[in-house]
Inverse folding.
């Protein structure tokens, strides 16, 4: 298990792409936007639900693991707690909403099977 | 405070409009769709985040209270735990995703100020 630090927070590590829309005692809600070719630096997500507002293709990386995901606008997927970096590998901008759960477990699953969303 | 029953579950009371996309130990994720003029019967929502996938206008009712809300596609709003019924008062279909929090408080706030989403 790896512990998180402030620099793992995507709004800190990648502020050009992640912004906080609002938060309360239960959730923090982020908006993510990028353009084709954008690469993020490694960052941490708590257990989250991601709702896609655009179609996009993305390669997620953690160490020597990677996983390619292709999502359509209007999907709602579970993103289990994890650390990763991502690259927009498609030809369209990415636009998503991330609902981070504050009460979620603090364990980080580094298995390849959980890299990226559960589809 | 009112206690919930199965018939308060919108997927039970209004199955033509609410469907469960998936659930896990932390959340249940619902999709809501309707057309102009659709009225739902009273139902209960736990603390939830609603992500809008369409523009829509809606009148929410609880007893003799009502509140009109107008939302745009791509918004993420907090829906505090509540019981209500709703009518699509606009000219466009409604399409939303509701992320219900399973760990949320079980108190129901019946104050008018919390009827509908927090904007």
């Amino acid at each position: 298990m790896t512990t998180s630090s402030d620099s793992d927070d995507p709004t800190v590590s990648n502020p050009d792409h992640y912004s906080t829309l609002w938060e309360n005692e239960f959730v923090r809600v982020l908006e993510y936007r990028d353009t084709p070719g954008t690469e993020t630096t490694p960052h941490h997500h708590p257990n989250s639900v991601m709702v896609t507002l655009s179609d996009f293709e993305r390669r997620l990386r953690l160490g020597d693991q990677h996983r390619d995901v292709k999502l359509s606008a209007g999907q709602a997927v579970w993103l289990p707690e994890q650390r990763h970096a991502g690259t927009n590998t498609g030809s369209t901008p990415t636009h998503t909403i991330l609902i981070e759960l504050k009460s979620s477990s603090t364990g980080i699953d580094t298995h390849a099977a959980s890299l990226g969303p559960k589809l």
User: Anything to note?
Assistant: The helical segments of chain B are 10-13. Chain B has one helix and nine strands. Residues 104-112 of chain B have pLDDT under 50 and may be disordered.
